[in-house]
Amino acid sequence: MTALIGRSRARGVETLSLDATDTRNALSAALVTGLADALADCGKDPEVRAVVLTHTGGTFSAGADLRDPPHPDALVGLLRQLVELPRPVVARVTGHVRAGGLGLLAACDITAAAGTATFAFTEVRIGVAPAVISLPIVPRADPRALARYYLTGERFDAAEAVRLGLLTTTADDVDAALAPILDGLRRSCPQALAETKRLLTARVLETFDRDAADLTALSARLFASDQAREGMTAFLGKRDAAWVV
């Protein structure tokens, strides 16, 4: 257990909460490691029927921590771990999601968000690309809509995220919406859940097998580029990047 990941359990459902509110749950090296360790514990514990991934504060995740980013290999490993975990993973979102946080959502099996949540692929605005997170996103999202939001960095709402395929459902009361879902998981056979999840994630894992090395290399190359340094400096300084016209 790590201070960055809150944990609790109720009737076989383990809740993991991103708890780095001072950085808006940005994906730092430490946060990625802590979440990976917690997921590994859940995968080995026969008493865990399902996992809920949620957050404290008003942001589910602000994306990569620009001051302490995880290695691309570590992020690939975390996303694959979510996809391969032999337990269903349910995302519960009551705040905003940016960039790498959308990769976490796409790697979960079922996703629910409040209607007030907002989403954006902001990578292009700081000089990089949504490379590694494309591994779970591209196989599951609508390609035409995805092209718009990948290329523009525009913000979109929860209803649009459902249409995109990034969310399962949106509701004013997320916990009420999740109650029948979690009840269904609790009533399901653990062996059957694991094998059914394997069927559902086969195409996503094919994408990991085929593209992970290339996308990891792309991410590393872009983050080391001069334009990315300008974009990140501008973002941290709360100014427009030099290329804005």
TrEMBL record:
Q: Give the top-rank taxon of the lineage listed in the UniProt record for this protein.
A: Bacteria
Q: Name one Pfam family in it.
A: ECH_1
GO molecular function annotation? catalytic activity
Q: Give the record's family classification.
A: Belongs to the enoyl-CoA hydratase/isomerase family.
**What's the protein name?**
Enoyl-CoA hydratase
| Protein's organism | Streptomyces alanosinicus
